Amino acid sequence: MADFHPILRSGNSPQGNNLYWSSVTVTGREKPKTLKDKALQQAKPPKVKEILHNVSGMAESGKLLAVMGSTGAGKTTLLNVLTQRNLSTLHVSGSIFVDGQRANKYRIREMSAFVQQHDMFVGTLTVREHLRFMASLRMGSSYTAWEREARIEEVIKKMGLSACAETMIGIPNEVKGLSCGEQKRLSFASEILTCPSILFCDEPTSGLDAFMAGHVVAALRTLAEGGMTIVITIHQPSTQVYSMFHNVCLMACGRIIYLGAAEQAASLFATVGFKCPDYFNPADHLIRTLAVIDNDKKNSIKNIAAIREAFLKTEAGRSMVEISKADRLGLESEATKSTFGTSFNTQRYAANFWTQLVALTKRSFINILRNPLIFKIRVIQTIVTALITGMVYFATPVNTSTVMTINGILFNHIRNLNFMLQFPAVPEITEEMPLLYRENGNGIYRTSAYFLAKNLAELPQYIFLPFLYIAIVYWMSGLVPLVPQFLMACFICVLLTQVAISISYATACLFGDTAVAMTFLPIFVVPIMAFGGFFITFDAIPSYFKWLSALSYFKYAYEALAVNEWMAIDDIPGTCGNGTWVSCPHTGEEVLKSIDFGGNMMWPDIFIMTAMVILLRLFAFGALMLRANRQH
């Protein structure tokens, strides 16, 4: 197929592609700087700010292009346009071409990789385990297991990660792991597993010292010289780092001022009267010259315009003008309502759903076992709490004076398990959301596969922990010493735990923020607990609050445990002070009647709690899907 415009030629390397952007303009609502501005914005139409103005350019295959400029120059917005990300609140016009052919965001994502500024990993995995996870999902069934392993080893060597291949990535303040430079190189390794033709990087040297920054950029240059098209944004590179760039794109005021060979930029500036001083970092000189000084805006803009005019007279400048004349193609923007509607159908994945589910489940399960705050501490917490509770209620006899005590033991099962496990489950979801958004946005896996894998991986601990608690407290406190009753009590408490965790899932997915979710969770849970049947019987609840009792999973679990316990007791020894069975029951069935529970309600309670688990998980999944889709 012929190119749309003669200037838009194919890449020089068979492994890379020439990337073009033509007449790209980006506008967005101006953010209010003060509360007064925000209040005025509510009354008036919002001001529209032009972020990029009719910019055109090219990133050549086999070369490393660095986009540079001072804060607010537009470099990050340009990178977002090229990668087709974070544009939902912006209006974008213009064209993107790859080797002369128009490319939409799905085509761009299929052939490119994007390394974002902040590295995100599951820190309990080793480098090799992380790359195996990525290879299984990004390379898919198109490659054999042997080919994936061979590619992993090749990438490890190319990125200089051989010495730390078996090292855990690390969790800040919890698990010691890789250095910042090693983590950045691991990010590159993750993205180049599938041999993309274009690699985008946002501030790859951010937070690194000069030595580490040099290593990272050297790795990028090696990838470029291997045929890849590399586009990065960078802020104030050192002289050593700047010397590694093939081309630079200098931006100011939302415009491209220079786009060409890095070694020729300083010479061009010198012809306009802005010579770089001897022994001075050329990158600092270029960026400072293009900076707009607040108290001298007029002269700053005049100088920028002079440099741009000089550039447009060069061969590279004339090529940029030709690129700007290429046919236009509207990009997805705020006005394009089909962006979200088509994301489910248009996104293609290298791995099938089953492969995604297996890989995600394995990663989550490894994280649970290795993260000391997720599993090990919880086991200790559960054992200690169970032992203390068991000692408090140790060998409680069954008689008329201990009926309330035994009911307290049963309700304590529910209360302790709920609050021990429910609240810590919230950050397990919310803190992983940024990683989910990134990996899902990169087309690595489906949100549905992640959610189901998360449920499957966490299920064993939420079965084991309540079983461990009941196994200790049940026998220490002297509850009915029958195996069927013990096993049923374990089952009911496991089911109660599943309801509690489902509420955590729903709250976390609905609010998406740990602090907000943890604030709202008690507002729902504490009133529900009050209507659980222990503090107040159902008949004593005011009519306008009875609906809360119907929502109380504490009630259903408490009733099921009470039925399981008391229906196995035919005789309660002891004497009654006033001779009435209402205050002094002599059978388990009489105990149940005294607290408004029915002896035949255990299985209906179990059914209701099972339905709650299903409905709450479906709600959580829907909320998570909406959140993930809004990030695209």
From TrEMBL:
Keywords: ATP-binding, Membrane, Nucleotide-binding, Transmembrane, Transmembrane helix, Transport. GO terms for molecular function: ABC-type transporter activity; ATP binding; ATP hydrolysis activity. InterPro entries: AAA+_ATPase, ABC2_TM, ABC_transporter-like_ATP-bd, ABCG_transporters, P-loop_NTPase. It comes from the Eukaryota. It is found in: Membrane. It is a multi-pass membrane protein. GO terms for cellular component: plasma membrane. SMART domains: AAA. The chain crosses the membrane at residues 373-395, 462-480, 486-508, 515-538, 606-626. PROSITE patterns: ABC_TRANSPORTER_2. Belongs to the ABC transporter superfamily. ABCG family. Eye pigment precursor importer (TC 3.A.1.204) subfamily. This is ABC transporter domain-containing protein. It comes from Pristionchus fissidentatus.
